[in-house]
Design brief:
This protein has about 325 residues and is α+β, with helices and mostly antiparallel strands. It contains 8 helices and 11 strands. Helix 1 (about 15-35) packs parallel to helix 2 and helix 3 packs across helix 6. This is Ava_C0101 and related proteins.
């Protein structure tokens, strides 16, 4: 299939809120059942060949929850062989939540707090999932396309991740913001105000530059590639970006944004996205005082012998 197929926000804007809340229901299980890692790396989902997964979690028993976005089923599997699955389509958030609780109970898992869980950072965060019969739209074709685009962006981000030699997060799919991202870190601690919430303090305890993609929301109703630097250094929004990209004010800071349509219009879509990520990263890193050249990593290689051989082969091929 083509790289970055069309997925206009308005074409599935009713499905996104439902799917987002389905993901949050399972994400709450992931949060409760996984060992904590720095910057909440234990919490997001990862891509599979058919959808997204929590990866193994829990100890008694160990289990996984997988979304299959080809057959549109949720699969709950334990390490001892017990397995439960059900169709995702046709559910409201309330009935999906009930099915997840039942599936987990069947394999012997009782996740703390899931019965009364509520959405995180969404407009209806005061309403328990168990009471949400409003969100019940699920377009299977649109959801399959979402997963296909997510998979393609995942691989582009993996390639971009290989160009940096210092601390880098996995490429992962965040259920709270419904985006896919990777983050590069400087070993510089960030002081937060005492009023800053615990989620933010852990996520941004060091200087970071994140690169990612999201599918749009009511405040920005189009899919887009993005990058941001936190804390934001002075002058960031004055830095040049590739043609078609722009700095977008959001929440008191700025996102570098390359609309999905602009990437689709490029002669080489993959190269256009990689150029955008690189320019946005360098804009933030240079202004934050990172040693950009020392941290660079060509072709994912840090071994100096292999790097020299790779450089020699590249020069030979260019002759």
């Amino acid at each position: 299939m083509e790289l970055f197929p069309s997925i206009p926000y308005e074409g599935w804007s009713d499905t996104i809120p439902t799917l987002h809340r389905f993901a949050q229901v399972v994400g709450k299980v992931r949060l409760a059942a996984s060992p904590r890692r720095n910057h909440w790396w234990n919490v997001p989902f990862h891509l599979t060949g058919r959808g997204i997964t929590t990866r193994p979690m829990g100890l008694d028993p160990s289990f996984t929850i997988d979304f299959d976005f080809l057959d549109h089923r949720l699969l709950v599997n334990s390490v001892d062989g017990r397995s439960v699955s059900f169709s995702i389509a046709g559910h409201s958030v309330a009935s999906f939540h009930s099915e997840v609780l039942h599936a987990l109970h069947t394999i012997g898992v009782e996740p703390a707090g899931l019965a009364g869980a509520r959405p995180f950072d969404l407009p209806d965060s005061d309403r328990p999932f168990a009471d949400d019969t409003e969100h019940a739209t699920y377009d299977p074709a649109a959801v399959t396309r979402y997963w296909q685009v997510l998979s393609q962006v995942n691989l582009v981000l993996e390639e971009f991740a290989g160009r940096f030699s210092a601390k880098t997060s996995p490429v992962h799919h965040f259920w709270h913001t419904f985006d896919i991202a990777l983050t590069r870190f400087a070993d510089t601690e960030v002081d937060h105000q005492p009023s800053t919430d615990a989620v933010t303090r852990e996520a941004y305890s060091r200087e970071v530059i994140s690169s990612g993609f999201w599918f749009g929301d009511p405040t920005f109703p189009e899919p887009a590639f993005y990058s941001y630097t936190a804390p934001e250094p002075a002058g960031l929004a004055d830095a040049p970006l590739p043609a078609g990209a722009r700095w977008h004010p959001r929440g008191g800071s700025h996102l570098a944004v390359l609309p999905y349509g602009q990437a689709r219009a490029a002669a080489d879509r993959r190269a256009a996205v990689l150029e955008f990520y690189e320019m946005a990263y360098r804009a933030g890193a240079t202004r934050a005082g990172w040693d950009v050249e020392r941290l660079a990593c060509a072709d994912g290689i840090t071994d100096p012998v292999a790097r020299a051989e790779s450089g020699h082969q590249s020069r030979h091929r260019s002759r």
